[in-house]
Amino acid sequence: MHKNHAEFLPLTEQEFKAQYGTAIPDFIIVSGDAYVDHPSFGTALIGRLLESRGYRVAIIAQPNWRNIEDFSRFGRPRLAFLVTSGNLDSMVANYSASRHPRREDAYSPGGKAGLRPDRSLVVYTSRIRQAFKGVTVALGGLEASLRSLSHYDYWSDSIRRSVLLDAKADYLLYGMSETTILALAAALEAAVEKESQPNVETIRGLVRVVGKNDTVYDSIILSPDDNITRSKTVFLPSHEALIKNRTRYAEHFALQMKHADPYGAATLIEPCGDRFIVHNPPPFPLTTEELDAVYELPFSRKAHPSYEKAGGIPALQEVRFSLVSSRGCFGGCSFCALTFHQGRIITPRSKESLIREAQKLITDPDFKGYIHDVGGPTANFHAPACEGQKRRGACSDRQCLFPKPCPSLRVDHTAYLDVLESLSRLPGVKKVFIRSGIRFDYLLLDENRRFLKELVAHHISGQLKVAPEHAGPRTLEAMGKPPIEVYEQFSRLFYEETKRIGKKQYLIPYLIAGHPGSTLDEAVALALFLKKSGFIPDQVQDFYPTPGTLSTCMWATGIDPRTMKPIFVPRGEKERHLQRALLQFNRPKNYDRVRKALRQAGRSDLIGFGQTALVPPEKNRHP
Length: 623
Hints:
The chain is α/β, with parallel strands linked by helices. α10 packs antiparallel against α22, α14 runs parallel beside α16 and α23 crosses α24 (591-600). It is globular.
């Protein structure tokens, strides 16, 4: 093994030879994203981590998948190909919520769309197999994580089997895979030395297929309760059962949720035909020291120079002068997949590490003195939710904030404020902003209003984006979000504090149309809330049933897996168009749809010219 810290990991054969001479790569990472050497991009993070342990890493970014030429660029790797669709699921990257092809791709040079194939993991692995028979292939990244078991696929409106089977890869790594990839690398290295099969049975965060020729196949068949993988095992409903009865899919998903925490999770075994998907327990979250070390690897924080002529990589601009201060989220939003990808346990970075990273930003010639964001999935979650999470993990039978805050929840912004203040005092820093999501319900639980005051006074650039998501009570319950009255309380305090210090700053609420649970009555309630608040969104986000979320399971089954009770799903396009129009009821182009929605909801009283009306009546017609 050799250690090397060039400005970029090699993207071309010439770059690899310049760094490593005549050696061959240990790992080749194939990615659906352009290569950006920044810790917010998974390819760079895993690549730099492997490099730091002495492995030779090469990258094939956005290869031409129509032939095998690009995939053969570096030859056969010594240990494995690592395949990812990039920072997004390839179908989400390529299509909008209405299933229309996207016109832009922020992770491609110049924002150009069409540079990654649909279902990238399957396509890339197929080309690799054509080029190199018998080579080891491991899948990773968000798409792999959320498709590791049978899952609902919105684009085909079907229950698809594990992407590991469809791609015909050897292994799948799910979650934030730093410890998993290092354990797999060690197992592959040992197998090469011993000329044997890799021992991967106990690697956390790893998924594999067990077939008839596998030595443990008979053990699984004959002894379902046997300690096959040296942890307790739970059998999921078979893939075939999910196709026949989607109620079984709701049960399947409920079991996944129950076993999403590393401290209490079992090995999940899913039958699929005459094979089994063996889904090892999740990896434990990194410690603060480990997370610091990962983010302080020698990233250049730049896009590869080969993209300059095309205009660079747009996604980099969002994070170039931002700092990741934590990992994990205990918010529990139903439409978010972080429970399965990052986990619910918060790992904060140390203040010292963040200061060192900020000092590197300051030396960048393009840095203008503004740190654009200091946060994570939720900016003001900067420590585990309670002391118990440190010892036994997150509870499998309850959420931290929903339906009501847990009595054990520890609410404290002190450490996060200390980070913000320390960064603000650095020479060369003019302002430190917060652009990550703020959980306003958590903020309100802090009786010390210091964080709210500091936020309003120093860390907003005119607007603060927050996510009430809806106003209808049944929809908010389905979303795992607090009642709208909680947002209204936060809004009142925000504007009072803004007025007190003499600033003009505004809240920009994120809202979702067409989420499970949202009937027309609920959508009307949201429209009335918007009228009352005086805010009409410029853009409306339609609910997008992406793989791996609780909300998507509701969408697919019409059942809430938390209760196994039926839930309304606004599936038809006509229904979704009506609900979407209600969020922008004041736009003349939406009047016809709004009137139709109001009449269907039995709310013709909201059609007219009075103060309570949402839209005027048609000409020559009474409501």
